[in-house]
Task: structure prediction
Amino acid sequence: MRLAVIPGDGIGPEVVSEALKVLGEVVPNAETTSYDLGASRWHSTGELLPESVLGELAEHDAILLGAVGDPSVPSGILERGLLLRLRFELDHHVNLRPGRLYPGVQGPLADPGEIDMVVVREGTEGPYAGNGGLLRKDTEHEIATEVSLNTAFGIRRVVSDAFRRANERPRKHLTLVHKTNVLEHSGSLWSRIVEEVSLEYPEVSVAYSHVDAATIHMVTDPSRFDVIVTDNLFGDIITDLAAAVTGGIGLAASGNLDISGRNPSMFEPVHGSAPDIAGQNVADPTATVLSVSLLLDHLGEKEAARRIEASVAFDLATRDQASPGTTTAIGDRLAALVSSNAAPRPAL
Amino acid sequence: MRLAVIPGDGIGPEVVSEALKVLGEVVPNAETTSYDLGASRWHSTGELLPESVLGELAEHDAILLGAVGDPSVPSGILERGLLLRLRFELDHHVNLRPGRLYPGVQGPLADPGEIDMVVVREGTEGPYAGNGGLLRKDTEHEIATEVSLNTAFGIRRVVSDAFRRANERPRKHLTLVHKTNVLEHSGSLWSRIVEEVSLEYPEVSVAYSHVDAATIHMVTDPSRFDVIVTDNLFGDIITDLAAAVTGGIGLAASGNLDISGRNPSMFEPVHGSAPDIAGQNVADPTATVLSVSLLLDHLGEKEAARRIEASVAFDLATRDQASPGTTTAIGDRLAALVSSNAAPRPAL
Ligand SMILES: CC(C)[C@H](C(=O)O)[C@@H](O)C(=O)O
Ligand SMILES: CC(C)[C@H](C(=O)O)[C@@H](O)C(=O)O
Result:
C-alpha cells in the first residue's frame, strides 16, 4: 500500500502523525511519502500544487491529508488553488461524509436519537465549477455571476454510488436533497436521474427534501436520514451541520473518491488547520483516524477499517469527554486498542 | 390602513383569521380585502397570479399571506408562479426573518443560550433569478445550468438595510454569511460592498462566516449572531435552521420588503400550508400574528407592533407548551392580551 501524505498546516501534521501511528497497527508495511503543500509552501515558494507534485500524488494508492490553511493566506487561494484543484484534477466526484453520533458523545441536541447517516456529496461540478465572472468591476453597475454546471454524466455516477451504498445498509433508505422548487433546471435533472437509478434498486426507498427543510430535519429528527445524495454546495452545507449534530467537526471524517479507481482517492478530517491550537498537542486526532478507516475501506481492507472504527467507538464511549487527553495520548490509546483488537465489533 | 390578504391553502385561512382578529385590537379601522390565490384557484382556473390581481395588490399598504401549496400541485408551480413572482414583481429585495428564542419555548438545542437575531436575506437575485436551462434534455449528454446573478445595486440596498438595522440594535453586530472561498466572483462583490457600507456605520462591528460554518454556529453558538446579511439561497437555508433552533417554523415570521416603499411589502409565516392538519383548528397562528407585528412595524406603527410582540412573548412564556390550545383559542388569548395591554413590555 503506497500512500501519499499531505500533513499541511496548523494541527495537520500533529493529527496526521497519530493517524499514521494507528494505521501502522493494521497495515505495518504501508509505504508513506510526505508532500509539503499548503500555506507554508505557498509563503516560501508561491507554489500551490506544482504539476510534478500532482503527477507524483497520482501514482499512489490513496492520499491522506491533514489540513491546510492559515489566516496569513488570503481566503480562497488555498481552497481553489489546492483543495478544490485536487478534487477536480483527480476527479473526486464522490465526496463521502458519514455522520454518526457515537455512544458517549454529547452533541448540541437535547434529544438527538440515533444518528447514523452517510452523505454522498457530488464533488466536481455544481456551483463549484468555477464558472462565473465580474462585469463592470468597481462601478455602480457591477455584476457578478456564478454558474452552477450539472451534467447527467456527473450526477448519474454519484447517484449510482449513493444507491449502491444505501442498498448495502440495513435501512436501505436514500434522500435526495436539493432545491427543485427554485432551481428548476438542475433540480429537474437531479430528480429524473434519481428516479431512473432507483429502478435498479427496488429495495431502496427514496425520499426527497428541500435543502432548507433538510436543515430543520437535521436538528429536529436526524434519525430519518440514512443515505443522503446531494449537490456539491448543498452537500458542503449539510455535512457541516451533520458534523455539528454528531459531536462536531473534531470527529468528522471524509473521503474524496474517484469511484472509477483511475485516480487515488483522498481522505481528510472535515476540520481545518486550527492555527490557534497548533503545536500544543491538544488537537483531537480522532477525525483523521476515522479518515484512515474510510481510506482502508475504500482500498478493500474492510476488516482493518472496521477494527479502527470499532476502536474509535470504544474510545469515544469510554473516554473522559471533558478532557479526552493530548493529541499523542489519544493516538496512543487508539493504536493500542487497534493492536490489541480489544474493542468490541460494532453491531452492523 | 389598506391591507390585501391572501389566506391561501391548507391552514392558511385559519391562521390568517386569528392574525386579523389580533390586528383588529390595535388597528380597529384597518380595511382588508381578501384575494383568492394558491392551489385551489390554480386547480379551478389554471391561474396563478393574474395581472389584474397583481395590479390590485400593488395598490395596498401591505399584504398579509397565510400559506399556499398543496401536494396535488406539482412542485415549483406555485413557488415560481406565485410566491417568487410576487417577490420579483413587487421588488421585495429585503427578506426579513427575525429568529428569537422566546422564554418558555423549548427548541431542539440542549443549551441554546440567548438567541435574538435578524436575518436580512436578499430577495430578488442570486440563484433565484430563474436564469438557467437544459441542453440535450433526456440524453446521456444532458447539461443543466443555474446562473446566480448578483448586482452591486441589488446587494448594496440590502446590505445598507442590514447595517441600518444593526446600528439600531443594542449589540450593533453584523455578520456576512456567504461562501467567498468558493464563489469567488459573487463573494468578492458581497465582501467589497459590506466593507464599503461598513464605513458609514463605524459603530457596527462586522464579522464574516462561510455558510457551512454558519450552520455549525447556528447549533453550537447561536448567541453570536445579531444581524446576518446574506444572499437569497444562503438566506433561505439558514433562516429555516434559525427557525428550527428557536422553536420551529410554527413560530417564525417573515417580511418581504420593498424598502423604497414603491410597492407594498408582504408578510407571512415561514411555515407552509400543512394540508395534513388543515380544517382541524389545531394549527398555531402565532407565526402569523408575529408577521402582523412585523407588518405594523414596517408601516410605522411601532407601538402597536411592540404590543403584539409583547403579548406573544407573554403567551409563549405562560402557555402550556404541550397543549397550547386550538387555533381559535390561541387567537382569542392573544387578542385579549393585546387589547388589555396586560403583557409587560419586552426589555429593549
Ligand atoms: C475549504 C472548502 C473549499 C471546502 C468546500 O467548500 O468544499 C470545505 O468547506 C469542505 O467542505 O471540504
Ligand atoms: C417556497 C420557496 C420558494 C421559498 C424560498 O425558497 O424562498 C421558501 O422556502 C421560503 O423560504 O420562503
In short: The first helix of chain B runs from residue 12 to 26. The radius of gyration of chain B is 20 Å.
